[in-house]
What does this fold into?
Amino acid sequence: MDSASTAIRKSYRALPTENNIDSSFVKDPDKIKSLILKDNAYHVPQTVRGTPPYWKKCMYKHCRSKTFGIFTFFLTLSDLKWADTLDAILRQQGRQLDNEQIENLSWEEKTLLRSNPVTTARPFDHRLNCFFNDILFGSAQPLGKITHYSYRIEFHQRGSPHAHCVLWVENAPKATDSNEEIADFIDEYITCKIPSQEDEPDLHNFETTVQKHHHTYTCWKKSTICRFHFPKLPSPYTLIACALEYDDLVFKAATLETAADILTNIHYTLQDDKDNKFESLDELLKKTQMTLKQYVYDLSITKRGKTVVLQRQIDEIWINPYNPSLLLA
Ligand SMILES: [Zn+2]
It folds into this structure.
């Protein structure tokens, strides 16, 4: 059974012994067998596509950092309108709507995509292949020369597919390179800048619609702070926040706690600012009685590991990072 995993049902009623499940329980073949006989657990072969064990195997196989190193970019590709696909499915059902009517269909009506998964999946697959072949691997190399890639396609509840991709890029900086080098590389390809409506109307339109975060119920699963960390904190420049290193552990803990309190306070100030009344980072810092130097220091320290803080103006705190060429593609 090395090529299979055992899944246990997560149901309190179905599994009265749930509270007693620990490592010794799951290592006991008799107890697992008893669960399987009562249909409270089942074996899942790793070879069945789409199952959690299958994806776990893929994750180890494709994203193994030992072979390729840490991937350079993670991107999600989706179609938010599905106008052509909805039009095709509607015609299959003997209905004909114009573009405006299709665009104005409600979320429930767009679940129509589920009624014909083949018609939905085929154009998406074609566009995904074109995106890889003509754009990512095209001569313009908008993300640099890609050496390896892996992607996983998932389906939203309404039936629309989207792809999560990881890419490895030649000569990308490594985690051991200087923070300045890493930040320069990120700034070359990724931004959350809102371009001017006059100079770049298409990009401005995409950016303020599809790239803008809107909270949904999934944002608040575990905390009063959005689990995607929106609104993001503004930063005068891109920096790599690093683990704070001090021999004095008491002083280190106090410094980290103070920084976390200050940043949380600023996050709540921005979250409560429904009218977007702050016009600049300076204004925000004045309101929260912070100096720029202290704020940037607090942004640049972490408990452990490194994290990227992207350059972000105060009006860009709801924007998901993007690559301008890919967004226009
Ligand atoms: Zn959110």
